[in-house]
Design a protein that fits this description.
Layout lengths: L1 H17 L6 H14 L10 H14 L9 H8 L5 H5 L7 H21 L4 H20 L1 H6 L1 H6 L6 H8 L34 H8 L2 H8 L1
Length: about 220
């Protein structure tokens, strides 16, 4: 399955590179049929399901919008499909989170230049709305995922995209109860939760290296 998906992804990327008017529908139908067939729960193949989903994630990463812009709408629909995204995020031990994180970063890396320049064509605006809907689903069903990776997501989103950034910054674990902000004499620094460090899965060191701040920061902290 992994080899077949990799071959299909490579063929799609090559076809998009040599064809000015890339036709995305055949590849969308191919991947959708494979996704439905291979990701359907099966008691015999249940143990291989994480590997199958990981193979799909690798194929979708190879076909990311920055590489094949003509496949962007089909790509987003496949990534957010009910047979893929929820199953990937529900893999035991959260092993699928890093794969889903990579795919969402792929999406925002593609959107970032348009969002930064505030130049949204009708197509980009529609893709942006689709991205917001996917994030709303994740905020409702998997808030811990958005919360744990909020650093790296915000790194690839322009500061001017307040609504988009707030979707990540407003996420918090479902096991946590937020205090009522209208409580009289509320002192945030006295809440017991303030002593619990948040879980951060983003690789902050990479961001510091990219900005050239790691060495100066290390020197300052010494």
């Amino acid at each position: 399955a992994a080899a077949g998906l990799a071959a299909a992804a490579a063929d799609g990327a090559a076809d998009a590179a040599r064809t000015p008017t890339f036709e995305q529908r055949p590849y969308f139908r191919l991947f959708l049929n494979l996704l439905v067939d291979l990701a359907t729960p099966d008691p015999v193949l249940d143990s291989s399901s994480p590997r199958v989903l990981a193979a799909f994630a690798t194929a979708f990463h190879a076909l990311q919008p920055a590489v094949v812009p003509g496949f962007a709408f089909s790509w987003l629909e496949l990534v957010a499909h009910r047979m893929f995204m929820p199953n990937l995020l529900l893999i035991r031990g959260q092993r699928g989170w890093v794969l889903m994180h990579r795919l969402l970063v792929d999406l925002f890396v593609f959107l970032e230049p348009y969002l930064r320049a505030v130049q949204l064509s009708d197509a980009i605006r529609l893709l942006y709305k689709g991205a917001l809907r996917v994030l709303l689903v994740l905020l409702h069903d998997f808030p811990e995922f958005l919360s744990d990776y909020h650093f790296s997501f915000c790194d690839v989103i322009p500061a001017s995209c307040i609504q988009l950034r707030n979707l990540f910054l407003s996420a918090f674990p479902r096991s946590m109860r937020l205090p009522d902000p209208f409580t009289p004499n509320l002192k945030v620094d006295l809440l017991p939760e303030i002593s619990q460090p948040p879980r951060i899965l983003s690789n902050c060191v990479v961001a510091l290296d990219a900005c050239g701040l790691r060495e100066p920061l290390d020197e300052y902290l010494r």
